[in-house]
Model the fold of this input.
Amino acid sequence: MLLGCVADDLTGATDLALMLTREGLRTLLAVGPPPQDLDVAGIDAVVVALKSRTIPAPEAVRQSRDAAEALRALGARRLFFKYCSTFDSTDAGNIGPVLDALLEFAGGGVTIACPAFPRAGRTVYLGYLFVNGVPLNESPMKDHPLTPMHDANLVRVLQRQTRLSVGLIAAPVVMAGVAAIREAVEQGAAAHRVFIVDAVADADLRAIGAALGHLPLVTGGSGIAMGLPRAYRDAGLIAALTPAPSQIAAPQGRAAILAGSCSTATRAQVKAAIAAGLPSLRIDPLEVANGVQTAGRILDWIDRQPRDKPFLVYSSDEPEAVRETQQRLGRAAAGTIVEDLFGRIATALPARGVTRLIVAGGETSGAAMQALDAGVLTIGPEIDPGVPWTRSRTGIDMALALKSGNFGAEDFFLKAWDYLS
Ligand code: ADP
Done:
């Protein structure tokens, strides 16, 4: 095992694990701290998914350092700290404090901070972060409920969060190539310990990876991980790159879809699945709250469905209906009621022969993963951008696709099964 990654949320960790897999590293995803007896034979990278983006900074630091220690104990010689490509954080953290702690843990020296992910519309130019061509502070991130971003200048943003001096490796240097980037970091190290690095295209990310793969700690979004696998191979740190799998073996059994996301993409996927004739059951949070719709009744319905077809249980609804439900139950309570119900259903699925499961929704996926106690996942083929099939290596043996609400094409619930063998 070479690379140990600490990610500040689950879907971000999945994204990173997929990027590393696609670029040739055999990667495991651990939901929470990895077990110390985890078998990492034949594994190049382990990504630990924390839920530390918006918790108090000292707690985020403690969890991240514990994860780094666990990864080091498993053999990691390089560390990666993954955060969101929109640099989601406040002046109190958590990117700066966690970066400080992990750099100290990695033995000091310098590191970089590069959230750029041009393919996803995130570019950094002269230190300013753009989201789909709009400065961060003018993008929808300005209104984020937890981490509103009011400054697009990442040198300033990060400097407010870190004890270390922040510098910039600007686009002209990055575009001059690998040697120029490495030299700029070496020279800049006299004045700075962290560098925001510009990147506006994949070629920039690959050059940065090639120039800085030797650093003990790299920080950024999934994009910056693009260039690292090849850099590790060229430096002889791993013997070879492994082609990404096009299929994943899945245990035989029933297939199920749990959709708790109300995002546009998921709503279209639910409609397409129903139109295609998949057996489906709608959850109404109000009926759950008043005790009419229970986990027991839903499981009875599942037991009555044909075993040779995927079935769909969904709470996805139109924005207006969701607003009405939230007014009646309260926003947080509505979310918790539905998440708890999906958790109870997920727990009961293995006993009903389900071995192949798609979960739609970030929070819903978190609830299902917790309920299933599937702690470590192997990364399989990419179904649609950002969503891989995975297979659990610890606990219950299942193929799992955890889909962030707005990801995936309309036929996602229909075609995903074709990647399983
Ligand atoms: P996404 O990835 O689209 O954000 P999440 O699963 O993270 O999806 O979040 C969706 C939230 O909405 C969850 O807390 C879920 O329990 C809640 N929810 C799901 N269906 C409904 C509904 N019909 N009414 C109100 N809240 C709902």
